[in-house]
Amino acid sequence: MFILTTLVYPCLLALLCIGAGLLVDRVSGGGYLPGVLLPAVGVAALIAVSQLTTYAASAAPTTPYAMVTVAVTGIVLGWRRVQAFARGWRRWRWQLAVPALAYIVALAPVLFAGRPTFSSFQALTDSALHMLGADYLMRHGQDYPHLDLRNSYGQYIKAYYATSYPSGADTLFGGSAFLLGVPLIWTFQPFNAFVLATATGPAWVLARRMRLAGGWAALATLTATVPALVYGYELIGSIKEVVALSMILMLGALVILHPRWLWRPTGIIPFTIVLAGGVSALGVGFGAWGLAAVAVLGAVAIRDVATGRQHARQLLLLVAVGGVVVIVCALSTWVDFVGSLHVAQNIASTSDPGNLQAPLHPVQVFGTWLVGSYQQVPTGGRLELSYAIAALTLVVAVLGALRVVYIGEYALAGWIALVVAVGIGLTAYATTWVDAKTIMLSSPVVVLVAWAGIAALCAYANPRLLRMAATLVAVVLAGGIGVSDAMQYHVSDLAPTARYEELASLNTRFAGRGPALFTDFDEYALYELRDLDVGGVDFLYPPGSLRGFVKNPGTHGAPVDLDLLPPATLVPYPLIVTRRDPTASEPPSAYRLVWQGSYYQVWARTPGAPAAIVHLGLSSTHPVQCADIRHLVRIAEADGAHLVAASPPEVVMVDVAGSRHPSWTYTHPGLEMTRAGRLQATFDVSHYGAWEVWLKGELMPSVSVSVDGRALGSIGGQLDGNPHNPETMTPLRVTLTAGRHHLVIERGGSNLDPGDGGEAILHEIFLTPANEPAVDTLHLIAPTQWRSLCGRRYDWIEAVPG
């Protein structure tokens, strides 16, 4: 699967996009689009195709085949050009190397992990929405009236896609992944990395027009494609912004190439397809960047008409052709323009900062930010160094802008000025969330202009100082971006592969037997369990009947306690999927365990089983007092019900807070293992036998576990959907004698593994007997015998009719 998703899939995407780009080139007159622009143009064209096929529900499943048809047609019609590229590939070595390098850099955390995963985990769950949406659009198209809104699955789709949420990136993503038959969850990060790599094509054209050549142009292109903020957005799976970035740079490249196509009858087609692709991916808000490019072209066209170089009727024809192409290629956006505009307005005016704890710093636009996350602020010398590199970048960017004007690239200068003006305008008047997107989308342009300043140094500096000055500035600029990206690579939290594969197996095993209640906070389950009509109590959109039944009502991502859910509200759920956690309450007596894996348990409701009249959750660590259950007994006696009690498993807790750990700090929600160190603790077990050692928390880097000097193994790469909602990890087995034992958990020093600096929080440690049965823990008691429950430990007690 790893090779399929990280190598085969991007190669397939490349063929699709190049083929689509060749078709657009041929339709627009042929030959004027440089080869490096074909992949990005192809991205826009395939977005248009996938938007049209998913507009009608019946045509949605044909989307992958429509994309293949477009690509094959383009390759056949442009075969001579393909042959020419193949024969002269040595001349294109830089143009071929740079996108490959950009893809490797963008996908580095996944590539060096050596397993299917994605790097947006715990950073922003929007990627879960895009996986869910891409799958839905491929199966059902843009058809929403039939959605079942009683559970989370239908509510998520309705809240976003049924309200004109931009879906251009999702339809391209879903169509290409469906074509290969690979899970969307494992192709999500390769898709983002590939689309970001397509931005190197227009960045290369812009760099060459700034008079950079060879290795200088390649370095400028690469660093402009992956500056710190852009890299951070790609790592968290900001699929809309990544696609929009490629489209913005494409518009700039087409602006400077306007002498080749502007007055051709069909020459405007690539420009308008790219414009439509940006609108479909980002929404009508993309119009701000589109208008910047249109304004430059409009000025050029009006000048040509005013000076008599062209006729006014040609301008009208140009506008008419472009208007038709934009409308057709972004049809779903324009059909519900009011809804699309409403979405854009909501995004632009929302006070919700999303995953941002504070507004981003405008200085981040310069590409260097020496900290592990763009959401954080560097400390100490790293902050001073970040500002120093930003100041140097600003100086050479000003020099670069003057250079662009001096060499007579007025269209390029005008486009740069308007893009910068759009960025300044939006950050001045928009909200925190939009400001961040704007700074990110502006960063590559600013970095490219800085490289134009380096080109100016090469052109005008004293020959003896030429290489020294230009090389020094280039090293600082490229080094600052490279180190910034490496720091983000180091702290990437990667999705747990084995756990999601187990969820996928559950979806296959129990498909169609839902709806299913999902008690874990992990919104990626919406995609993985898409055939079970999932309802998540702690999701952003919980089932209406269960809304508010969490430990902290109204809190997104709060822990779920089944004891808080009234038994009658669970009747609509034939299945309950829980995490395998011996310390958590099991479902009510109407459910029986029907499947258990390494991470999850599936409980099925017994047909005809009545809902309990009362469900009383108890502390399994303290004996029941008669006073605690007297009210429950009265209800049972009055209604002729019987009592059912659930016995908890034997659990031996290890005192994490009281353990020895000189290198770490204990805070909510646990022990932060931020550096190399060792935890030492003691515990007692009551009898000889096989025991399982459980860790609860969030562990991206690996830690080793040993008991009495015996190594049990290591645990790492196990994360849940929220660091404040710790997960119970797969246990390690050990044979122990009765009595006291010594436990050691050790984290080693830093290494180059992706995510080595990621989440490392230890919440709890406990042991359970390894062979204790997972079923037959229920006890039936007559109401008259209720006093036999006093003084014993129980998970919960119910009063059940009958």
Structure, described:
- The protein has 802 residues and is of the alpha+beta class.
- It contains 27 helices and 20 strands.
- The chain is globular.
Label the structural class: alpha+beta
Q: How many β-strand runs? A: 20
Catalogue the unreliable spans. Answer: none
Largest sheet: 7 strands, antiparallel
Mean pLDDT: 89
Q: List the quaternary state of the chains.
A: single chain
| Helical proportion, percent range | 40-55%
Total of helices: 27
State the end-to-end distance.
51 Å
What count of domains describes the coordinates?
3
Write down the Rg. Answer: 30 Å
Q: Strand percentage, roughly?
A: 5-15%
Coarse shape = globular
How is this fold's topology laid out?
Blueprint: H1 2-27, H2 38-55, H3 63-77, H4 79-87, H5 93-106, H6 108-113, H7 126-140, H8 152-160, H9 168-180, H10 184-198, H11 200-209, H12 214-225, H13 228-235, H14 239-256, H15 258-261, H16 269-282, H17 287-306, H18 312-329, H19 331-335, H20 337-349, H21 381-406, H22 410-429, H23 432-460, H24 463-490, H25 497-510, E1 516-518, H26 525-528, E2 534-536, E3 575-579, E4 591-596, E5 600-605, E6 614-617, H27 626-639, E7 642-646, E8 652-654, E9 665-667, E10 670-672, E11 677-685, E12 689-699, E13 703-707, E14 710-715, E15 727-728, E16 732-736, E17 739-747, E18 760-769, E19 778-781, E20 796-800
Parallel strand pairs: 1-2, 1-3
Antiparallel strand pairs: 3-5, 4-5, 6-20, 7-19, 7-20, 8-18, 9-10, 10-18, 11-17, 12-15, 12-16, 12-18, 13-14, 13-17
